[in-house]
Amino acid sequence: MNQDNIKEKLLKIEDAPLEFSLVFSGKKSKKVNGLYKVQSREIIIHNRNFKQDDAGRNLLLYTAIHEYAHHLHACSRGGNLSSRAHNSEFWAIFHALLEKAESKKIYNDVFSVSPELLKLTDVIRVKYLANNGALVKEMGKLLLKAHDLCTGIGVRFEDYVDRMLRIPRAAANTAIRMFEYDIAPEVGADNMRFLAGIRDSDERKAAEKAFIKGKSPDTVKVAVRGKDREDEEPKVKLEKEKLRLERTIANLSKRLEEVKKELRAH
Q1: What angle do CA 140, 174, 227 make, to 5 degrees?
Q2: Radius of gyration of the chain (CA)
Q3: Shortest CA distance to 57 belongs to which of 110, 122, 1, 133?
Q4: Distances (CA, A) of 130 to 123, 176, 189, 214, 231
Q5: pLDDT tens, residue by residue, 90-146
Q6: DSSP class per residue in the chain
Q7: Which of 212-222 are b and which e, b meaning 16 or more Cβ less than 10 Å from the residue's Cβ?
Q8: Within 10 Å of residue 8's Cβ, how many Cβ atoms?
Q9: Residue 54 backbone zone (phi > 0: left; psi -120 to 50: alpha; other: beta)
Q10: pTM over 0.85
């Protein structure tokens, strides 16, 4: 595969709104396999990092798709990227590209080649992720019962959580919502916590369905939350930073005057 072949494959996976170039550096790098230069819209692949076999070619293509995801992310931002390039929105774009590449037989699913890994994955999902989720959900049911008992004897449920169970109140309330919302344990406790934070039932069910279908957490979170706050318009970010700096300066100035007074007193 040469650099023209790789670019052709990327465009077959998904077309790009803005033109880009892809070049092989002809070098070996110990730090990265590839990089994306947003200003010049250039994907650079350190092609000497990869072996000349099927696994090496597949890894090279994986790297190219990763860098192409940066380009498409920049395209969605008018050609710019924030300082935090690997945010949830990027990972959602990247994972979607991998799914498309696999479905079009452009990129090989690397996980399916190991029966042992697939078997282990099933054990982790069923025995640990699903069971752990079911336990937390069941705890939510018991916590709700404890809440009613606390109310019946005239004590605060929050005090019971703090002093008797000794767990964070937020964790207790999240577990209760997991039970009340009847969230599917198969998505795992961590994803259940995210779903428990979605108040809109239709939105929550859609997100839960996406998890069950195998979508990555970043993909689901971007669909629910929209674009990351870190990628706000530059002017908005600067205005917020200006306000933070002004408050900091005001607080420091106030403290400076207090220190000066204390020094004069001595």
Answers
A1: 150
A2: 25
A3: 1
A4: 10, 17, 8, 14, 34
A5: 999 999 999 999 999 999 988 888 999 999 999 999 999 999 999 999 999 999 999
A6: --HHHHHHHHHHH---SS--EEEE-----SS-SEEEETTTTEEEE-GGGS-SSHHHHHHHHHHHHHHHHHHHHHHHTTT---S--SSHHHHHHHHHHHHHHHHTTSS--TTTT-HHHHHHHHHIIIIIIIHHHHHHHHHHHHHHHHHHHHHHTT--HHHHIIIII---HHHHHHHHHHHHTT--GGG-HHHHHHHHT---HHHHHHHHHHHHTT--HHHHHHHHH-S-GGG--HHHHHHHHHHHHHHHHHHHHHHHHHHHHHHHH-
A7: eeebbbbbbbb
A8: 13
A9: alpha
A10: no
Supply 11's token pair: 């465009």
